[in-house]
Design goal:
The structure holds two protein chains of two kinds. By secondary structure, chain A is mainly alpha-helical. Chain A has helices at residues 2-17, 25-44, 89-105, 114-133, 137-146, 148-158, 163-192, 197-203, 210-227, 237-243, 246-271, 273-300, 304-324, 328-359, 364-367, 371-374, 376-389, 396-409, 417-445, 470-488, 491-509; strands at residues 65-73, 78-84, 368-369, 451-452. Chain A is globular. Chain B has a two-stranded antiparallel sheet. Classes of the chains: A mainly alpha, B mainly alpha.
Chain lengths: 513, 531
């Protein structure tokens, strides 16, 4: 089944790459069908994992299901080893869902060269799914890097005016991080002789000296930090998001950013626990600095997409804070916040794309205000998304942030308690700052008296037809519902992640080892 | 005087090539011009492919004896001058396949050359002769055979480079190559002379024995000097920094198929020489590993940094080739020390060589296709430098609109050279090299390779992105003013043979990415753990 989930989008990508040039409707239909099929295949994997206790009783650190283990590049011990467990499945489902919604969005905003566009999106999906399912270090690395080229072309060819420079910055920055990642992975191999993640997780760092663990964790840390992004390695994100087309931004925020934090939880923590314990405080400090700095930067932003990009940096700060606590609560918080961020920020980018396509600008100065009065449905969804993003209880964003702060107050034994306590307070203050800038945005753009800005309206459209179309509703509603569902009943995700995370912490991160 | 015994079986690849060469010589005299232009390169390409097939078939046989063997003396084993072992067989296969691909490019060039400016027979002759030299180098087991092979590889290239008639660039390139090669051969001869003087033998196995004998001649400073001179001579051949100065102008002055040959088979011949020589000499001189490491690092870095400034595609590929030589040398830099790790270093170089040859021949094939006139001087009579020197990054801007498949293939080969997915083959090549560095206790080399990959990505991506750039407003609007500079040979379609070659190479690159054991797994000596 893992092979099906990975193979479908790959097949779709190759077929679409050979599609005849002039076709407009057929590639979009084909792309949507493939994306839908991939989502279905991923959903099929769900029942097998429900109620999975992740091997907490068996004491194994990693207990994958739907395993595929084939020889691949046998001369250097690289195997095609795929598997799914409770930590990766929510992200796999999120990826498949966002890709499907992105394909549907092609009917809202038709890209030129649709076959090439859909082919690149599917290739992106292959990379993301491969990363989440990989159980071999080189396979993980290959999938991790696959997303670079399609995203580069998506931004540079279909993006805004400054797209070329933004795309290049994104590509080179991410590649530099990947170079560090490769070094760390090969370093692990050189010390242990194995690329296999299940085996390495079992070992839990046994047989790797502390110095090597520190160095390897440092290298992996840099690689994942660029991708997450962790302050101060985040500067590639705002330009990339601003210039990317809507679908590109959604996939960048909703899928690619998850890969960095997933890598930390899946690889860096289990394989190098001593390194993790040593560097966790640094991770926590950088994460919380990111939360605060991003919130302050957001407050001054006047361009919609840039604002949401910085808010992503802030949210990922909470995720990384959760990871740095090295406790079950913390890592669960991180995974939950990951999924929530994917849903909410994905929705936000779809909405901002809707605003931009109507007014041809993202600048707050040119958009005027009183959007709720002019475009009531769009205004409502925008309010919902912003409020969810700032962490209102009852919606998805709340749980991740709250649990991360709670976990920071009770970090793992061996981590400096007072430091984490201070960081928890600062993070909570950061959450308040998040609310400040989102409310500022809402006050400025959505509520209040109607002021028509300089940005010109869609030609010949009255206020009714410029409001949300049916197709856009198809894209927004699933994300809306899932955000609400996750907020009211986080066990949807936590039920999946709890078991494997408990197994991970117990088997590997417990300080008795 | 002892007469060496000759076993013909291991020489089969060489004999096939020689047969082809003789046929080309004779057919050139007898066939009319039109037929000559097509038959001769086609036959040469088939010959090279046949030689590759022979080598693949023979090299798997461990019982295959060597050839040109001296009679066994008292207490010595029989020393053979040419042995088609596993390594030599692999090198012969990849060399001959690269040469065959280049000859297909030559076919396209000759067919486009309607006035018969470039002599078809001589063109194929020199390329075949050079290939014979490379094959001899791959299997050589003594220094004289190595030298003869290297000279056979180099001398015909003087003529090949000069085939760009009617332009001074070709003659200048040939002269540069001649002078530099002669110097490097002189250095190498000096080194060989010193080694012979020290050890009294030319054969590499005997050489290794004498050099490692404790307290013997291996400890003399002269041995180190000799090794350095020998390596310097070989480093000229592969274009390592600082012995690289001939490469960019020679590549640019030569016809594109010849530049492709220099970048692929000729470089592979140099690497073959290094793989043959290094295990023997580095056992006595650990400095050899240090020198290799130094060459590797400097080549990578300088090659990538200067390539970033290049605008002309052939020159850019020349400098990128210098950087790729650096990656190839990394595996050879970990050769001294534990023998199990040593083998994996050479194996990593062999694996990366196979990947590199595929990607570089593909890239040059795409440049040849884009150039339209496949290598001869562009629009005749023009003095415009951009046209005369061939395609540049600006001139290929937006190529994907007119030639989507060539653009996609070119982007594929460039990304493969950069070592990134989705061209997984290139990535695996890089992983193999980095792994060899780490397991050979030279982790810092691996780190440098990774960093250089980032540097190189900048210029590879620049070209790949230019291919797919939007040139103006909507596709197909009439009266569109293209703002591109003067195109070479507008309206000329891509030659069918070049197109087919590009397609075949791209397909192999993609398929081998998903099934890397096909190419990388075939390289011998790869795993250090007892395989």
């Amino acid at each position: 089944m893992s092979l099906v989930v990975l193979g479908l989008p790959l097949l779709g990508c190759l077929v679409l790459a050979l599609w005849p040039r002039g076709a407009d409707l057929s590639p979009r239909i084909f792309g949507t069908v493939i994306a839908a099929a991939t989502l279905l295949a991923a959903l099929v994997m769900l029942p097998g994992l429900r109620g999975d206790d992740g091997g907490a009783d068996t004491g194994r650190a990693l207990n994958p299901r739907h395993e595929v283990d084939l020889p691949w590049l046998s001369v250097i011990d690289v195997r095609l080893h795929l598997g799914v467990d409770g930590i990766s499945l929510p992200l796999i489902l999120l990826t498949a869902l966002l890709t499907l919604l992105g394909m549907v969005h092609n009917w809202v905003e038709r890209p030129d060269r649709p076959a090439l566009f859909c082919s690149l999106v599917l290739l992106l999906e292959v990379g993301a799914l491969g990363t989440f399912m990989a159980l071999d270090l080189v396979l993980f690395f290959a999938a991790f890097e696959v997303v670079l080229i399609p995203m580069y072309f998506l931004i540079s060819r279909w993006g805004g005016p400054g797209a070329a420079a933004a795309a290049l910055k994104f590509a080179v920055y991410t590649l530099a991080g990947s170079a560090a990642l490769l070094i760390g992975l090969v370093f692990i191999y050189a010390s242990t002789g194995s690329f296999d993640l299940v085996e390495l997780s079992e070992r839990g760092g046994a047989g790797i000296s502390t110095a090597v663990q520190l160095a390897a964790f440092g290298a992996l840390f840099v690689g994942f930090a660029v991708k997450s992004p962790l302050w101060p390695l985040h500067t590639w994100l705002p330009p990339a998001h601003t210039e990317a087309p809507t679908v590109g931004s959604v996939l960048l925020a909703g899928v690619q950013l998850k890969m960095g934090t997933y890598g930390l939880v899946r690889i860096a923590l289990p394989v190098l626990p001593e390194g993790a314990r040593a560097l966790a405080p640094i991770l926590a400090v950088l994460a919380v600095t990111g939360i605060v700095v991003a919130a302050l930067a957001c407050y001054t932003q006047n361009e919609l997409k840039r604002l949401i990009a910085y808010s992503s940096v802030g949210h990922m700060g909470f995720v990384l804070l959760g990871v740095s606590t090295l406790t079950t609560v913390g890592i669960n918080a991180a995974l939950l916040a990951n999924v929530a961020h994917g849903l909410i920020t994905g929705l936000l980018f779809f909405l901002v794309g809707a605003v931009k396509s109507r007014f041809h600008t993202g600048e707050l100065d040119e958009l005027g205000s009183g959007l709720w009065a002019r475009l009531p449905r769009l205004g409502f969804v925008l309010v919902f998304a912003c409020v969810a993003s700032l962490g209102l209880p009852g919606l998805a964003g709340f749980w991740g942030e709250a649990m991360a702060v709670y976990a920071a107050l009770h970090p793992a034994v061996g981590l400096p308690g007072p430091l984490f306590g201070v960081l928890a307070v600062v993070a909570a203050a950061g959450a308040v700052l998040t609310a400040v800038y989102f409310l500022r945005l809402l006050r400025r753009l959505v509520v209040g008296p109607v002021v028509v800005g300089a940005g010109h309206r869609v030609q010949g459209a009255g206020s009714r037809t410029a409001d949300i179309w049916v197709t856009e509703r198809v894209v927004h509603v699933p994300l809306l519902l899932l955000t609400l569902a996750l907020g009211l009943y986080p066990a949807v995700v936590l039920g999946l992640t709890e078991g494997p995370v408990a197994g991970l912490v117990e088997a590997v991160l417990a300080p008795s080892r | 005087m002892t007469v060496q015994s000759i076993t013909w079986a291991p020489l089969a690849p060489v004999l096939v090539l020689v047969a082809g060469l003789v046929f080309v010589l004779l057919a050139d005299l007898m066939l009319p011009l039109g037929v000559r232009r097509m038959v001769l390169p086609a036959v040469s390409a088939v010959t090279c492919a046949g030689a590759a097939g022979c080598a693949a078939w023979l090299a798997g046989d461990p019982g295959l004896p060597g050839t040109f063997c001296s009679a066994p003396g008292p207490g010595n084993a029989s020393r053979c001058a040419y042995v088609l072992g596993e390594t030599a067989g692999f090198l012969t296969v990849v060399l001959c396949l690269a040469a065959a691909a280049v000859l297909v490019l030559a076919l396209a060039q000759l067919q486009a050359d309607v006035e018969g400016v470039t002599p078809a027979g001589e063109y194929c002759l020199v390329l075949l002769a050079a290939t014979i030299g490379a094959v001899i180098v791959a299997g050589s087991r003594d220094l004289i055979t190595l030298l003869v092979g290297l000279e056979t590889l180099t001398v015909p290239m003087y003529a090949a480079v000069a085939f760009r008639r009617g332009s001074s660039a070709g003659a200048e390139a040939a002269l540069t190559l001649l002078l530099v090669s002669v110097t490097s051969t002189a250095l190498m001869l000096l080194g060989i002379g010193f080694l012979y003087g020290l050890t009294g033998t030319m054969h590499l196995d005997a050489l290794a024995e004498v050099l490692t004998a404790g307290g013997g001649v291996g400890d003399l400073a002269l041995a180190d000097v000799a090794v350095v001179l020998l390596l310097a001579g070989l480093a000229f051949k592969v274009g390592a920094v600082p012995f690289h100065v001939w490469a960019p102008s020679t590549y640019q002055g030569a016809p594109i198929p010849v530049a492709a040959y220099l970048s692929s088979a000729s470089k592979a011949g140099g690497i073959a020489g290094l793989i043959v020589v290094l295990p023997a000499v580095s056992s006595g001189s650990p400095a050899a590993a240090t020198w290799m490491a130094l060459l590797a690092v400097v080549s990578m870095t300088v090659g990538n940094l200067v390539a970033m400034r290049q605008r002309h595609l052939v020159r850019l590929l020349a400098w990128s080739g210098i950087a790729q030589t650096g990656y190839l040398l990394v595996g050879l830099a970990v050769l001294s020390g534990r023998s199990d790790q040593a083998l994996s270093g050479a194996g990593a170089t062999l694996a990366y060589l196979a990947v590199y040859l595929l990607m570089t021949v593909g890239a040059f094939a795409c440049v040849a296709a884009i150039d339209g006139t496949t290598g001869t001087v562009g629009t005749t009579g023009t003095t415009d430098a951009a046209v005369r020197d061939g395609p540049s990054v600006e001139s290929v801007r937006g190529l994907a609109a007119d030639h989507p498949r060539i653009a996609a293939a070119f982007a594929l080969f460039l990304i493969g050279l950069a070592g990134l997915p989705p061209v997984l083959l290139g990535l695996f090549g890089k992983v193999v090299v980095v792994r060899a560095a780490f397991t050979g206790d030279a982790g810092w080399l691996g780190i440098l390779v990774a960093l250089n990959t980032v540097l190189a990505f900048v210029y590879y991506l620049r070209v790949a992105a230019a291919l797919f750039a939007r040139t103006g407003v909507a596709v197909g609007s009439a009266g569109q003013l293209a703002s591109t500079p003067v195109e070479v040979a507008p309206g000329r379609a891509v030659s069918s043979s070049t197109g087919m070659l590009v397609a075949a190479l791209a397909l192999v690159a993609l398929v081998a990415g998903f099934w890397p054991d096909l190419i990388i797994g075939a390289a011998p000596l790869l795993s250090p753990f007892g395989e």
